[in-house]
Nucleoside diphosphate kinase
Amino acid sequence: MEKTFVMVKPDGVQRNLVGDIVARFERKGFKLAGAKLMSIPTALAEEHYGEHKEKPFFGELVDFITSGPVFAMVWEGDNVIANARQMMGKTNPSEAMPGTIRGDYGLTVGKNVVHGSDSPESAEREIGLFFQQEEVL
Ligand code: ATP
Ligand code: MG
């Protein structure tokens, strides 16, 4: 069964949005396969966002994602990778549709509440970065 990596970012945890975001995925019908509250070490943040290393916002991105606890999750289900991206909405919350997580809760592209893997390759890579095999049920 397809799996994806979803993470409530530090702004979402601080604003007490973990429960709402978990509930959206549960109600949709996806199965929770792994979850933990954690602080991201700088090296892990740099590896996770490695594709953006050359971007001007890379430093800010790493600073932000390591600024407080995140809630890391693995969700499972048919087409969950693409579906999770749809449920999250566009990267820039000001362009994200109402009804999506970013559309409902975000204001700026830097603090956009949630992360979700963008492809099967990313999902496998990111689950492996954040979870030990035995933590994914
Ligand atoms: P994520 O990878 O966090 O799920 P995404 O896949 O929708 O988001 P990416 O293009 O991978 O978007 O960008 C990663 C993150 O970098 C975004 O979530 C956002 O917080 C930040 N980011 C993207 N573009 C910008 C920008 N122009 N200025 C500042 N931050 C940005
Ligand atoms: Mg991305």
